[in-house]
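hey can u check if this looks right to u? its 246 residues, i copy pasted from the old doc so theres a chance i mangled smth
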Amino acid sequence: MRLAGKVCIVTGAGRGIGKATAIKFAQEGARVAVCDVTPEWVDDTVREIRQTDGEAVGFIVDVRNRASIERMVKEMVAMYGRIDCLVNNAGIVRDAQLKNMTDEQFDQVIEINLKGVYNCTKAVVEAMLPQQSGVILTTSSVVGLYGNFGQTNYAASKSAVIGMTKTWARELGRSGIRANAVCPGFIQTPILSTVPERVLAAMEQKVPLGRLGKPEEIAATFAFLASDEASYINGAVIEVSGGMSL
């Protein structure tokens, strides 16, 4: 198991990519902090992990709230003595064309998708620096690379976390801490649940592989990047999109 004994934190782990990542990490031997704002989602993910003899601890964490983040980090360090990996995955969408977007819609996305990544990383790095090792992984998006109609706020947040990732790779690399970002394409997650079938079909047509991605495919990428097999990958931005940008 490539993550045997590693202590990993996954935010937004209640559903979608985050849930798949938490489960994959546990399957690979990690001890996982399952973090989300919705208690029942946290419980569901923890239950699934434990049903297959994985090790997981659930935390109600709002990435906008530093106190809840710091409490979770402190408890994980108290339990396991270290933190080896953080997956910044918590995120939301509040889509609208620029002419219709409200300040509230813009601010909500920036506060969670961008400031939340900053808050979590800052708290975790405090634990990683003394141990001189660690991995910071962040879920960006192809939207952060290429933009998307109706997603000014989301594109801004996902582009910005790429900039932060590259900065952290420079700042923290000499302390043995790697930082990388993953840019998923169109993935079958609850975020797409309200998208009409005709729109989903059009999305699939844009992908050379002819289908949407699976959360497990993003989780597998994160598992590799969190492992020692990726020990020389730092500051990378990896698109996992089925080739949709070709």
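Helices lie at 16-27, 39-51, 66-80, 103-131, 142-146, 152-172, 197-205, 215-226.
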